[in-house]
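Bench log, entry 3. Co-assembly request; chain sequences pasted below exactly as received.
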Amino acid sequence: MQKDASILITGGSGFVGSHMLEYLLLQGYTNITITDRSNGEVPAGVRVEILDLTDAAATRTCFETCKPDYILNLASVATVGNSFQKAESMMTINSSLMLSVLEAMRAVTPNARLLQVSSAAVYGLVSSDRAAAQNEETPLKPINPYAVSKLTQEFLASAYARSYSLDVVTVRPFNHTGERQTTAFALPAFAQQIVAVERGEKESLSVGNLTGIRDFTDVKDIVVAYEILFDKGVSGEVYNLGSAEGHSMQEMLDLLLENSSVEVHLTEDPKLARPLDIPVSIADNGKITALGWAPTHDLSETVQRILDWQRKQ
Amino acid sequence: MQKDASILITGGSGFVGSHMLEYLLLQGYTNITITDRSNGEVPAGVRVEILDLTDAAATRTCFETCKPDYILNLASVATVGNSFQKAESMMTINSSLMLSVLEAMRAVTPNARLLQVSSAAVYGLVSSDRAAAQNEETPLKPINPYAVSKLTQEFLASAYARSYSLDVVTVRPFNHTGERQTTAFALPAFAQQIVAVERGEKESLSVGNLTGIRDFTDVKDIVVAYEILFDKGVSGEVYNLGSAEGHSMQEMLDLLLENSSVEVHLTEDPKLARPLDIPVSIADNGKITALGWAPTHDLSETVQRILDWQRKQ
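Structure output for the full assembly:
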């Protein structure tokens, strides 16, 4: 990417978006626009377009204004825990915003590159003989509406790409975390409770099922991969993004607890359980490491940053 | 199926629904309910529930009334030609009605069997080495929003089935036709124009691209397959439904023209072309023929019935 290329980041004020902005500014990119639904704080040198991406006309106007060469589509309703309760609005919003972006791209910037951020959730229940690692050809067995909505976005993007010769690269990130991630996700939720115990505001930490094996990557490594995929991703291809290493949720919690200043007791909360959980989710990351990406942050550093951030709240 | 089993057919007043009703009544089934959006003509002995399936509460009430043992989910927005223009409403309606059915099934009749009617459109652009026939493992490469909306329905159904142990069988019918099919589809549209030429109301027949190879089955054979799948389909499995024989659209048109009482000239209409069309779509039907199904109607009989029906309009 040229440093003055026009880069549009949808959902740019979210968790990953904020880290992507920090990284791109540090790399010297000068022509960055983000979309946001309301006026929030944004680093100097970044333009903000206030709009709801489910509004196709507003999205098109945004494309006409910033004429993106590269689009990072991070915007998405992204709740997993209770996605059955919110299934209809999640399906509607996630497909609607995807269609707005694709229609705007087709009409205004048909030569731009779209990096569509999907999710490893699309693999769902991998069969036991595949449990060691999911490559991009692993059959798709999503188990909740969130995963289906991400698959729907992928298929819409590829249908537009095939029919209108658009340049679309898809990435399926596995679990990632870091400071500023909301407490709808497990590690920030644990960290928030640990800090509450440290402050004497809470007696113990509520946990759900901790046996699941997950592949965690620091968000600071995730955003580096997005730049690499803009530059070197092959059009029409799908890339897994993960460390290729599995850790149980218990191990991740233990990493957090090692960095706590007090002893924390655990209590099980059945309300945190899901109708069905995925036992193992580990990336086969051969395709993206072949492009030169590798994770560089140690997870003990990552959880330290998450705890420090929660202590400042 | 027991003859007094409660059978619910969503979209039961549509083209396939009407043939399914005829067939089930002929077989002696006595406990049939259909959903319809407005009050239309229905054969004696069939109950009608007037509702919009995107209304989850109304759908649940319908399930509470008829307590279905078997659900044939035929309801769907099913336009292909211009599905890019109607993408947003198509995606929203098709996922919303699917969620209503799944939620009602989970809440009211968790032991019922759902036969989810998908479409061979989900295969999309099969690569050339696979062009001869698509089996159920062929990679999914949908090229338009209609196909994506059918895939979304499949994935929602399987996500609910996995998470809540629901009994779902999925069928992917290839092209099918017969009397009462709307002129949004090619063969009835051709037949309608041929009849207009026969009546001296039109000079020629407008056609789009006729090189595509399609796998056509008589709707009367399709509905027999649905009964077989209710009885013998394996829960969680997907079944192709087609003849395994390919015909070019030109051949299908010629079959119609052979049965016309006058000579019909053709004119090409570029408006009938799509951004991208699928060159070949032929079913590998090994899985469903293994259950005892085989097509029995000759297509020259089928097109004769289509023409006769148009002549009565």
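Chain A has two domains: 7-177+217-244+283-296, 186-212+247-280+303-311. The domain at 7-177+217-244+283-296 of chain A is CATH 3.40.50.720 (Rossmann fold).
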